[in-house]
Amino acid sequence: MSNEFSIVVRDRAARARRAPALWLWLALPALLAGGCGTSTTDPAPRPVTAHLVGSSGRTVTWTTDQPTRGAVRYGFVSGQPDRLAYPAAAGGADRSYTTAHSVPLLSVPEAGATVYLQFADATADGRLYVAAEETLAFGPLPAVAPCLAFTTFDVQFGDAHLLRLPTAGATVAIDGGNPYEGANGEAAPRHVMRWLDDRGITRLDVALATHMHADHVGGLLNGSGGDGQGLLASYEIGVYLDVAAVTGNAYNQIAVRNLMASKSVPVLVIAPGMDQATAPAALGWDPLVDVMVLNAGAQAEWAGGDLNNDSVVLKVSYGDVDLITGGDCLVAGEERILSLYRGALDNVEYFKSSHHGRANANSQAYLQAIAPRVAVIPVAFVAYNEGPDQGALDTAQTLGRLAALRADVFRFDAAEPLARPQDNRTFWHTTFVTDGASYEIRIEPSAWGL
Fold it and tell me: What distance in Å separates the CA atoms of residue 426 and residue 411, rounded to the nearest whole number?
């Protein structure tokens, strides 16, 4: 055992608190065991036990008494984990079921920092066991490699994302939410701007709208209810990425182009199949990061189809870690991506779900090809005009498919792998962070409703 830390076991007899939905999910195998056609004499599966082995630098190691796929929930306040750290992606370590586990904690700030952690071990049949909280005081810490961070903002019903690149921290804004959506008098784009302002971000090196629906492009153009300045007018913009053609009325596309012309911002057109090598001016964002366009703009094969299928879909790769993000691409768009780029989709670490997790996207074939380890659904059910029940129904199919793939799923309204349920006051921004080898998810309150 390393001598670089001290351990205090905190209430080993108490189990970690979990969201009610997660308790039900964990209890489901036991409930089903007594159902029709199942023998009630079958022994219950053995619970997993975990044993802390030690730490070296930033890396924590532990063992389990049976094969599991392990991660570490941690934070800096007891009982409030806000990070979930995964093993290295290389060789499938983050997906392997084993009894020996090793996970680096990327955001421990300094030597001597007190970290409260819990081992989260999942068995191959989908059971999740979260160990009692333990406390570590870390010794000397090696520097973290430059990190890539992808933040998905809670903008109620809509999309807004910010990608921060590793080499020089350049920023890529993808969508801006809906200026007609808001809470406590604050519209979605202003909500995003406040987050940017709090972090001293005054320039967006790259900006793009995945497609021309108001809940994606609206916040780039407008600030509040269609009036005021959106993100494109409020910040210095390096370059704007556009598509050659859109389905239906091009009013919003023309408005964006006119705004960029008024600011003398270059507008570059991207198309499916482009990458940083073939289109360096548009996609050469960082020498350490590969970017590939999987979908962008109206395509001939769905002439007169749904504008959602215009959505820009990007694969971004840093080292061994990949993420896929796009707007509202539906099944037709997903099928086109599969026909052209299936080989580029295998075993992606992070997936931003299509069309808010709804059932007319996120097809089984598409999700199986991507096989995400982590998925994010940017929606709060209360934001649906149809009401929370309809929102839950709309995403049930996607949640089921992701559960079958053993993906960890985060939503605006619940961070279930961290047992942080929405409490009718707090929703969550979700940030995917990677050093190109391992990765973690960080959540933070969106502050709407507080």
Answer: 12
Give the pairing type, strands 59-75 and 160-164: unpaired
Do residues 182 and 188 touch, judged by C-beta distance below 8 A? yes
Domain regions of the chain by residue span: 5-138, 148-445
Class of domain 5-138 (CATH, top level): mainly beta
Q: DSSP labels for 89-140? A: SGGGTTT--EEEEEEE-TT--STT-EEEEEEEEE-TTS-EEEPPPEEEEE-S
Structure tokens at 332: 């037709």
Residue with token string 């982590």: 374
From first to last of its 450 residues, the chain has per-residue pLDDT tens of 333 222 222 232 333 333 333 333 333 333 333 334 444 566 788 899 999 998 888 999 999 999 999 999 999 999 999 999 999 999 999 999 999 999 999 998 877 788 999 999 999 998 999 999 999 988 888 888 999 999 999 887 789 999 999 998 999 999 999 888 776 678 888 889 999 999 999 999 999 999 999 999 999 999 887 778 999 999 999 999 999 999 988 999 999 999 999 999 999 999 999 999 999 999 999 999 999 999 999 987 765 678 999 999 999 999 999 999 999 999 999 999 999 999 999 889 999 999 999 889 999 999 999 999 999 998 755 555 566 566 667 788 999 999 999 999 998 777 888 887 666 667 789 999 999 999 999 999 886 644
Q: At what angle do helices 214-221 and 188-198 cross, to 10 degrees?
A: 60
Euclidean distance between CA atoms 220 and 235, whole angstroms: 10
Residues 269, 260 contacting (CB under 8 angstroms)? no
Q: Which CATH number fits domain 148-445: 1.10.3720.10, 3.50.30.40, 3.60.15.10, 3.30.230.70?
A: 3.60.15.10
pTM: 0.88
* DSSP-assigned beta bridge partners for residue 352: 376
Measured distance CA(50)–CA(131) in Å, rounded: 7
Whether the Cβ atoms of residue 123 and residue 45 lie closer than 8 Å to each other: yes
Phi, psi for 171 (deg, rounded to 5):
-120, 140
Instruction: Examine domains 5-138 and 148-445 and report if their fold is the same.
Output: no
